[in-house]
Amino acid sequence: MSETTGASYAAAGVDIEAGDRAVELMKEWVKKTQRPEVAGLGGLGGFAGLFDASALKRYERPLLASATDGVGTKVDLARRMGVYDTIGHDLVGMVVDDLVVCGAEPLFMTDYICVGKVHPERVAAIVKGIAEGCVLAGCSLVGGETAEHPGLLGPDDFDVAGAGTGVVEADRLLGPDRIREGDAVIAMASSGLHSNGYSLVRHVVFDRAGWSLDREVEEFGRTLGEELLEPTRIYSLDCLALTRTTEVHGFSHVTGGGLANNLARVIPDGLHATVDRSTWTPGAVFDLVGKAGRVERLELEKTLNMGVGMIAIVPADSVDAALTTLADRGVDSWVAGEITARGEHTTGAELTGDYAR
Fold first, then answer.
1. Which residues pair with 226 in a beta bridge?
2. Rounded CA gap, 37 and 140, in Å?
3. C-alpha to C-alpha distance for 268 and 289, rounded to whole angstroms
4. Which residues on neighbouring strands pair with residue 140, listed in sequence order?
5. Among 168, 178, 276, 294, fewest CB within 10 Å belongs to which?
6. The model's pTM
7. pLDDT tens-digit profile of 301-311?
8. CA 240, CA 237: separation in Å to the nearest integer?
9. Which residues pair with 335 in a beta bridge?
């Protein structure tokens, strides 16, 4: 470019027209997420998303809950595979399943997509996945932002983040104060790795094992890439169904830090959660990561979910009803442990025994 030619946003790498095209392509998907509280209020492309708060009048004392998250380095796998319409499920799952831990019903989400270069169809595919995840979670996608960062990100690089808002009646708020000695710990199966630990996973399969994403893995019955890109299971509606059909004292969303660490976050002082490994067999992907990287079990367990994506803590006499509700909803679940008094040398939660084989 000649030094006498005036600078422009496009010459600097930002394509506003491509961004506008992306917005047009995503509108049909966002519309599919609309709850009654957002229907007819503005629309995609405004400066802010709207939600009709008069819907909260049915609550005696509504508490708003908020959460925000991303999907970490799993986005690198989506980029490598050229598959962009599943990563949004991961984003929604990471956000709404944090909200439901306190008993909150997810109401709406906003997203943030940062790209090196706007490819309209690619951005629309990402939003399609987010919208589909919102439908599965029962919440609306009311807005978001697509930012183009040339010079900071490569043309094919991107990242996603999101924030969600939910509501719970104050006297139905779930937390450590409800949990009692003798409660049962019910595990809900994960769909795979979900969206945590991918820095370790990528290091193991790419740097140590030298595998490619198109490698067929017999234990998976599909390629390595297809297994690693399996979307995060979204539990919010399943957990809310539990709260309607039986007594629930608490939930724990198993994300970064693993099962024991996340479960300990909802266990009150004086009590202890014991989870028996022999009650389930982790999926093949966890065994593969452990063996390929010679990763010690404790390291795996503090990094990956090991096959459990959500925990429900219920009174012992609510176990049968809880398991029936989850089975009716197609959620594989089982009694994995119990809540006991904390001993002198015990912490908030621990795993015991050996995994079933």
1. none
2. 9
3. 33
4. 108
5. 294
6. 0.90
7. 999 999 999 99
8. 5
9. 186
